[in-house]
Amino acid sequence: MQSIAVSKLRANLMKILKQIEHGSSFDITSRGRVVAKLVPPDYTRKLARKKLIEIAKKAKVKDVLSPIDEKWEVHHS
Asked: The whole model's pTM is what?
């Protein structure tokens, strides 16, 4: 993902939107800090599919419907 300052985004909005239309993504920065992201409309779907493919490489599918006697630990990230 590329980064662009708010001031440069304002000056080049149409150019940046064309790049996003062709698949580019941008972090928008203000004073060196990321304040927003500009991504293509289908970006989240592609990202989710990529993550699922990564999980599928490591996951083992078993019976997930039958109850088990183990307690689950919940970890928040």
From this structure: 0.55
Residue reference for tokens 């920065």: 29
Six token digits for residue 27: 């972090």
Instruction: Return contacts of 1-6, CB within 8 angstroms, 24+ apart.
Output: 1/25, 1/26, 1/27, 1/37, 2/26, 2/27, 3/27, 3/28, 3/29, 3/34, 4/28, 4/29, 5/29, 5/30, 6/30, 6/35
Give the domains, in start order, of the chain with CATH numbers: 2-58 (3.40.1620.10)
The confidence score (pLDDT) of residue 18 equals: 94
pLDDT in tens, 46-68: 788 888 888 888 877 776 666 67
